[in-house]
Amino acid sequence: MALALLFVVALSFLIDARPGGSTLSAQATSTATTTVTVLNTPPAWTVTARESVASATSTPTNSGDTVTWTAVGTDSNGEDYYLLICKSSSTPTPSAGPPVCGGGTTDIWAVSTSTLSGSVASVSTTTAESWAETNAWYGYICDNNPGSAECNPTMYNGLHEGGASATSSPFMVNHRPTITTVADDSPQLPGDIVTWTSTAGDTDIAGGDDTVQLHVCQTAGFDAGIPACTGTQWATSTFIADNPSATTSIPVPYQDGDHDAFVYLIDEHGHVSVSAWQGSSTVLTVANAAPYVASSSIQLYDVFGSTTIDTTLALTEPEGETQNYVVVFDVTDENGCQNLSAGNEVTDVDINVFRSGAGGPTGLLCDASGEYNANYCYTHTNSFWTPVCVQTAASCTASDWNNITWECTFPLWYIADPTDVGSEYPGEDWRASARATDDDASTGNYSTEDEAADAGAEMTQFLSFRATGSPIAYGSFQPGFGNAEHPGTTTVFATGNTGLDHYLSGDEMCTTYPTCTGNATSTIYVPYQHYSTTSSHAYGFDLGNQTFELATSSSPVLVDVDILKTTSTSSPSEDDTYWGILVPGSIALAGDYIGRNYIDAAIAPSSAW
Fold first, then answer.
1. Is the dihedral of CA 227, 231, 237, 241 positive or negative?
2. How many CA atoms lie within 13 A of 342 on its CB side?
3. Strand pairing partners for 328?
4. Whole domain around residue 121: which residue ranges?
């Protein structure tokens, strides 16, 4: 600027009268106006530029999050200022509005709004997945003087002050991990290990390869802040550079079928993948396990619904089946007691019931159709024997229950072998074996009532018989005459599970029976009736050895006939007794003489069965 100076000279004449002279003196005064223009100065750094939260290799900024810078500038003119963050260190261009980095608009990371002198300026930028991992930055401050805006030429990037390196250039962008494949090695059984493998990783390498972690969730939902599934978690891997895998043991019990297994990948800085697999399910398939029966749980009882546990089996139906014996046992299914459709997992059971010596220690000698025998082996495979089995409702009220109680009622024929003292098999007992089938038609092996756990059930001797042959018609005779042999016949049938002998006795005969007078002329006394085990024996032949006098009803005589134990349900064992009579010569009263003979069964020694 040119400086114009104006000098004005004025002459004034002053008359100065002094002694000794007559000279006159004159004096004049002038003024000059001065101007200067003071140029605008840039704002000064009060607090240098820095990241407000460190974005470093150990604490990178996730893509999609913001990096924020702060600084304080003070302007000598009190003017507002801007904080400018550039990608390069070239001198920025000031303006009355926001300044521009030296490289132009594409060189700008961020520029703040106009900020009061002396106040904190703050500016942020949102990172993008496409940005580099390492990003240098350079901070400048500029005022907004409308006529001559100025930028402070000194750049700060957090590296100029001690201790500021944690918030210094460059800032780091953490990129999302990627996952391209996931697979599991199911189907697996409950209790087995299932493994999820992946093809996954992270491209970031600054400060060392970033590691990733695989999470597998039972339900959709993941919290990256923890990190963990929002619901129940199947499995979690460790943090690893590439291709993480996760394993877990399938709980017992667990329902068979397909189950969701949602996959989530996260890196060590809490950044989740957005790949197609993220949040998708691999579908974990739990295999079907065959149900099994605990041998120690099998119990054989006498009567279903009894208020007491009675392991003594008693037959009650001659020549028939005694109903409602019961086997109770627990079925274990590692898929639980309910299937995915809330139906019963175990749908059917089979039982066999047998005398222990006939079935063998494991019951395998009584489990096939051809092995059925009503004396000692009842197999479910035989159409003649059909137990009724039900699952008790109280034993299955939730899917994670896997011990299910079943009750089977069944009949036993009257010939079932006794095992009590005095029988043929006093050292044995009756036992049951059981197996179960599930809703996938998978059948377990038979388990047999544990001999070490209990003594089984004792089958008692069932004394039962049936006699035929009444009336015994001897014929018509004059006094002093009678049968030459033994024409009358009675038959005793063994209708229980033992061999038999029998007691024989009788009453005297008269025409007014049962009120006989005992008079010899009108009474045929009991000993005049003889019995024999052979019809052809002559009446009275070898008396006491081949033929026998009948005893009175008050003193019955045991007859050792040794009727064998019945072994066929349709053909009871039997034995005949033959009868003859002599009409005493003392009888004077003619007429029809009537009496009564008694046949009572007795259990024969087991050696004779």
1. negative
2. 1
3. 299, 407
4. 44-174
Tens of pLDDT, residue by residue over 365-421, are 999 989 999 999 999 988 889 999 999 999 999 888 989 999 999 999 999 999 999
Are 250 and 307 within 8 A, CB to CB?
A: no
- The angle subtended at Cα 82 by Cα 79 and Cα 88, nearest 5°, is 140
Contact 141, 151 (CB under 8 A): yes
Distance separating alpha carbons of residues 416 and 317, to the nearest angstrom:
12
Residue 554 CB partners (closer than 8 Å, separation 6+): 505
Q: Which tokens hold the place of 396?
A: 């299955």
**Residue 566 backbone phi and psi in degrees, to 5:** -70, 135
Do 334 and 371 share a structural domain? yes
Please name the helix (run of DSSP H) or strand (run of DSSP E) that holds residue 284, with its range, or none.
Answer: strand 284-286
CA 4 to chain centre: 104
User: How many domains, in total, are found in the chain?
Assistant: 4
Alpha-carbon distance 298 to 275, whole Å? 55
* Whole-angstrom distance, CA of residue 439 vs CA of residue 339: 8
pLDDT tens for 296-352 read 999 999 876 655 678 899 999 999 999 999 999 999 999 999 999 999 999 999 999
Report yes or no: 289 and 333 within 8 Å, Cβ to Cβ. yes
The answer to whether residue 340 sits within a structural domain is yes
Buried b (16+ CB within 10 A) or exposed e, 299-330: bbbbbbeeeeeeeebebebbbebbeebbbbbb
Residues 237, 365, single domain; the answer is no
Point out the domain boundary residue: 119, 154, 174.
174
Q: What one-character-per-residue DSSP string does 431-477 give? A: EEEEEEEETT--B---EE--TTT---BEEPP---EEEE--S------
Structure tokens at 266: 């996260």
Per-residue b/e over 462-487, b at no fewer than 16 CB within 10 Å? bbbbebebeebebeeeebeebbebbb
Q: How far apart are CA 281 and CA 296, in angstroms?
A: 42
Q: How confident is the model at residue 140 (pLDDT cuts 50, 70, 90)?
A: very high
Cβ atoms of 373 and 353 within 8 Å: the answer is no
